[in-house]
Amino acid sequence: MPQFCTFASTAAIPSRRLAVALLAAVLAAALGACAPAQSPAAEAPAPSVDAPDPEVVEAQEAAAPEEASRAEGPEGLRAEDAAPAASAPARATRADLQRLRDRIPGTADWTEMEALLRELRGALRDTESGFAYRELLHLEHAITADVAQWVAARTDRRGLGRGEACLADVQCADGACTGSGCLPGEWTCTPRLTPDQRVTMDMRTACLCSGTTFQGSTTVLNTHRVRSRGAPCPEEARVR
Questions:
Q1: What is the number of other CB atoms lying within 10 angstroms of the CB of residue 225?
Q2: Strands in 21-84 per DSSP E
Q3: Contacts of 14 (CB under 8 A, 6+ apart)
Q4: Which listed residue, of 28, 32, 138, 200, carries a Cα 20 to 30 Å from 218's Cα?
Q5: Dihedral (C-alpha) 214, 215, 218, 219: value to the nearest 10 degrees?
Q6: 68 Cβ contact list (under 8 Å, min separation 6)
């Protein structure tokens, strides 16, 4: 009897190990069955964030030359590097000219008058193409008369000599306020011709500020206010 018990206890040791091994296998299988099955999408590795889409890259490369040509200005300069185009200045209107002319009587001094005349000349040149020729003549004569009246009310800047800048005939000691251009501020004092003065023996054609065409000696021409030289006026009326 003691020998049988000893054998039985000795033989039971492998059986217990086998049972433990089987139990472990059963538990492992049970745990595996309970775990959630992974979807194919989850099993696939996630795409890298930094990796660009090949189709997108190809489309960007195809569009790059066209975008670069649009961005480039003249001589290959990019639009942002090119200097901005200067906007065209606004052209003067007839109302602008009238406002400038209305300021003549109230001008305070010679410096202010000279500045105002510069504005008038610029505005008149800017709108010159918008005037009929006779209308332009009338406006120039009206401005000249307004300035002459302003000058006549002052006693300074009188007795000016030859070549000195003038605005009206009354300022010149011996002669007239003449020169190129048909508005005050462009003229100088020029001595009048005397009966015994010799004149150059040449023939010149010019358009005078009076609206008449001049043909005669240069000496005589220099005593007039001249719009342009070398061609007759648009509406011809010859004087000698």
A1: 21
A2: none
A3: none
A4: 138
A5: -80
A6: none
Length of the chain: 240
CA 131 to chain centre: 27
Output the tens digit of pLDDT for each of the chain's 240 residues: 444 444 444 445 556 676 666 777 766 666 665 555 554 444 555 555 455 666 665 666 666 655 555 555 444 445 445 554 555 556 778 888 889 999 999 999 999 999 999 999 888 877 755 677 788 888 889 999 999 999 999 988 999 999 999 999 999 998 799 998 899 988 999 988 877 777 888 889 999 998 899 999 988 888 899 999 998 888 644 443
| pTM across the whole model | 0.57
Phi/psi for 158 (5° steps) reads -110, 165
Contacts of 224 (CB under 8 A, 6+ apart): 178, 206, 208, 209, 210, 214
